[in-house]
Each structure stands twice: as C-alpha cells, then as structure tokens.
Amino acid sequence: MKITLQIISFFLIFAGLLPLIKRDYWTFRVFDYPRMQKLTLTLTIIFIWLSVFYNQLEIFDLAIVSALVILAMYLFWQIFPFTPFSKKMIKDAKGNDPLAIKVFVSNVYQYNTDFKKTTSLIEKENPDVFLLVETDQKWADAIEIFKEEYPYHIEKPLDNTYGMLFYSKLPIKKEQLLYLIDDEIPSLELDLELRDGNLIKIYAIHPTPPVPGENTTSTERDAEILIVGKKAKAYGKPCLVIGDLNDVGWSYTSELFLKISGLLDPRRGRGMFSTFHAKYFFLRWPLDHIFVSKEFTLRNITVHKGIGSDHFPISTSLVLNPANLNEEKSANATEKKEAKEKISDGKEA
After folding, report:
1. Are residues 67 and 199 in the same domain?
2. What is the pLDDT of residues 231-281, one digit of tens each?
3. Which residues of 30-62 are buried (b: 16+ CB within 10 A; e: fewer)?
4. What range defines the domain where residue 45 resides?
5. Domain at 292, CATH number
C-alpha cells in the first residue's frame, strides 16, 4: 500500500508542478484546469500518509509528505482569490438600479437537440443580451422565437462547433464579425447602447481548447484571448469580454489577460462558479466568462441549471458606475513583451 501511495504522491506532485512550465503543448496546459481537484486529492493523500503510516514514516516518506504539504499550500494560494474569503475584484452594486444590464452566456453544445431547455431558461431569466456558442443552423432556427423581443441580433451559425448567436433588447450601434486567428472561428465586436444612452463595447469570443482532436497546443487560444485583451485596453472605455474562453480564471494566460486588458473577473472574491463539465460533478471548473472593465459594479453572478449541454449557462447583472473604486491589474514591460510574442506565435501557428 505504501508503494501505491508513493506512486500517487509522485503523480500529484508532477501534475501540480507541470503548469509552471510555460509550454503551450496540451499536456502542460490541460493540468491548469483541475486545481480544486488536485488540492482535494493532495489533502486526502496527506491525511492517509499521516493517519495510516504516522509511525512508519522514513526519511524518504517525510520528504514526499513535505512536498505534498508545499504543493497543497501552493494550490490553495492559487485558488484563494476565487473564494468568498478573498477581496472582491468588482465591487457590489448598491441599491436596485433600474439601468442594470443582465448578460447571459451559454455554450449550448452543438449536438444537443433539447432546444426547449435553453429557450425556457432564457425566457425565465429574461436577460438584456444573450450569447450562445456552438450554435449551428438548427440552433439558429430554434432561437428565432426571440427575434420579436430581442430585435437586435447577430447570427453566425456554423457546423464546426464555433457558431455564435448574439441577441439583444438594447440597440446594437456598430458590429463587426471578425476572424482573429482562424478563418473558421469567428468572434464578435459590437457597440451596445444602454438605456441611459451610454455606449459599451462587447467582445464575444470562443477560441479552441488545447486538447487532442481540437488543438494540440494553447498557442492559438492564448493569442486570441490576448488580442481581445489588447483591444479592450486600447478602447479604454466601458466594455465586456464574454464567451467560452476554454481557459480557467486562475491560469497564467488568464492572469496575463487581466493585466494586459485592465479588465476584472467577477468571480474573484465570490466563488468559482464552475460551468464545465455539467455531466461530471467531480470534474468542474470555470471555462465560460464575463470579464468587465473597471467602470462596472456587480449586482449578481449566477451559474444556472443544466440545459443538456456539457456546459452550464452563466449570467451576471451589471451596473455602469464610472465613479466606483475597482482596482485593475497592470502589466509590466516583461509581461507586455510576452503577450506580444504569444500573439505573434498564434498568428503564425
């Protein structure tokens, strides 16, 4: 049993340290995702070591346990910002502001044909805008029932799991359908007019994940995320970045994105709000995001019930309040250079 425990311990240490190697290949990047799972397993193995073998620990065993304790501390430090015990990155909205905007985002899973679950949830939640990704023509047809209530819409159904449908009750003043990295993977950039006449910009993206069968590296994903981050920074006015980013909020790329863009993550200081995988409770992490600029405060953020997809929908209610005191991150010269190199690598991939 001790040998088995040693093997499991070595695997956990390996899995915990691998994301520290800044390589884009999927075998490195995929271990970014299950931080909470790794922490839970690490604490469990430490408990077994100390409870079962507490009087049989040799120097080699003590070294393993010490390494596991250090790993657990590191993983907890990584996860802590995504707990209610950490400082909120976005301040709470005060009062019941009638000018709040509710944003709903869902990866519906292209092969999911239970359209009613999604349409019923949208009807119930009644967002001001919603983005659906992985939408083919069947999904576009099913969502047409909302065209009267949501008179402003941008539709790009595709059969390659990268289709997008964006519907809005609020006027879309300007729109662009862009292909930032791949000619088959669209993204949206649009100006939305709020009820008080203010304009905000919304970037909607769905880059490829670094997994076999999709993309063996994270190069293109990272580049697309960072391109949008630079766009948001250059815009310098209220904006949102929404979509299935195929990356967790605690990854190095997400941290770099926040610094490059100056945007904020509503999860930080509130919880993980995991949206994937909907079918496996023990393998869940936050892949779908709504990042916001510093001018917003937050009324709420919600992960909704399953709709037959492998993702849960997520929504948030935001209030535009330029006078608030949200603190954005900033990138140093080294980080700006790294972001530039990642973007260049992605465009060449």
Report:
1. no
2. 999 999 999 999 999 999 999 999 999 999 999 999 999 999 999 999 999
3. bbbbbbbebbebbbebbeebeeeeeeeeeeebe
4. 2-82
5. 3.60.10.10
